[in-house]
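// run 5 | inverse folding | seed 20
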């Protein structure tokens, strides 16, 4: 079979495909795997209980049930949900927006595919533009969505180390280069894979650069505020018509509903809605229906603040403490856990690559992610990106504990 350029591009090996295949194989296989590689949110009892009751309500109300499974929504997304979310954001943050500033997508990954290929790549006048990722490492899912080669350009971070075997990445603003070839700036906050939360000052500076160069500033807010609010440090959300704020229902507890959210100026949201209509015809109703009352009442903020955030923060502290215990005597650093659901480990001068460490751990029944996948657009050689792994702490505590012990043991084996 001879495929088109499009199919060839999207059937080549990629980190995000390997991640999802590993997760699927592990779930379907006979061998028990310790799943510390994926980004699936935890099954938090209070959250699961709410969504079970919400689903039962639909079952008990035939007209509403028929609506969510039997009727198409508009390409922009379910109108009541858009209205409720606009009101929540206006009332909470004072942002001047309405439902016309919001569009849903079939998951965040689909949304980034549409956004990146709208703002970068080849333009009608023949020019080529790129997406600037101002601080590595960044989300694994960005790297393979471009319809043109070399869609991303990335900057190495500044690294600050601390005496307690922790470190933190910062945007190296002096090294940022923005010219007419840059179509947009994009950062995740909190950052997947590191759990880094860019400071308010860093975000403001990036927005000022975007305004100066009249390009969009994309903020990937999948783990941020107002929901699911997996943020453990002092930070404040930001939006203006220069900002494209991307959110999701996944980390709220609805990953299977595949509901991404884009908040932007009307020109952007209308364009994405039109693309939805062509590519998907309509969007799924299930996610917006399940979350509607949470958003409409504002309880989604309470749920994040009182349930979701403390749940993950407690798990993060336990996992970090166990890594410190198991890695004693080894040269290692853990990125400061400021949000999201991952730990990012750095093993300076590790004699094997992080990809080899990934393979050895997989043979021992532990799935992590090799850090080298998280540097899209960084063409220059940098040993650091071969010395890191991403580990999720969102799984059951016993699974996380077993996995950490095996990781530490395998690193010791590599060093001996």
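// decoded
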């Amino acid at each position: 079979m001879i495929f088109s350029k499009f199919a060839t591009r999207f059937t080549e090996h990629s980190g995000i495909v390997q991640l999802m295949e590993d997760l699927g194989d592990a779930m379907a296989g006979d061998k028990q795997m310790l799943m510390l590689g994926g980004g699936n949110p935890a099954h938090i009892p209070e959250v699961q209980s709410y969504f079970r009751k919400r689903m039962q309500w639909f079952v008990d109300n035939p007209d509403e049930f028929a609506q969510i499974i039997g009727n198409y929504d508009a390409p922009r997304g379910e109108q009541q949900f858009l209205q409720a979310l606009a009101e929540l954001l206006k009332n909470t943050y004072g942002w001047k927006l309405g439902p016309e500033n919001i569009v849903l997508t079939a998951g965040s990954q689909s949304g980034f595919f549409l956004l990146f290929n709208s703002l970068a790549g080849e333009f009608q006048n023949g020019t080529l533009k790129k997406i600037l990722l101002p601080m590595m490492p960044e989300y694994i899912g960005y790297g393979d969505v471009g319809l043109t080669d070399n869609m991303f350009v990335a900057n190495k971070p500044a690294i600050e180390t601390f005496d307690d075997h922790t470190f933190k990445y910062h945007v190296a603003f002096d090294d940022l280069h923005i010219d007419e070839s840059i179509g947009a700036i994009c950062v995740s906050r909190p950052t997947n894979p590191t759990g880094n939360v860019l400071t308010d000052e860093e975000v403001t500076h990036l927005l000022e650069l975007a305004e100066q160069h009249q390009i969009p500033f994309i903020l990937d807010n999948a783990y941020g505020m107002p929901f699911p609010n997996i943020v453990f440090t002092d930070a404040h959300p930001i939006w203006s018509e220069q900002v494209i704020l991307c959110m999701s229902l996944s980390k709220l507890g609805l990953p299977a509903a595949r509901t991404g959210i884009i908040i932007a100026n009307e020109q952007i949201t209308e364009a994405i809605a039109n693309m939805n209509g062509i590519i998907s015809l309509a969007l799924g109703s299930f996610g917006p229906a399940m979350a509607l009352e949470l958003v409409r009442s504002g309880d989604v903020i309470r749920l994040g603040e009182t349930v979701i955030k403390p749940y993950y923060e407690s798990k993060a502290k336990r996992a970090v403490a166990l890594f410190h215990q198991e890695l004693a005597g080894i040269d290692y650093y853990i990125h400061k856990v400021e949000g999201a659901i991952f730990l990012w480990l750095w093993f300076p001068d590790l004699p094997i690559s992080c990809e080899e460490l990934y393979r050895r751990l997989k043979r021992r029944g532990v799935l992590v992610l090799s850090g080298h996948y998280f540097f899209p657009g960084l063409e220059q050689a940098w040993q650091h990106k071969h010395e890191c792994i991403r580990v999720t702490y969102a799984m059951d505590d016993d699974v996380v504990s077993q996995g950490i012990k095996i990781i530490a043991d395998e690193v010791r084996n590599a060093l001996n």
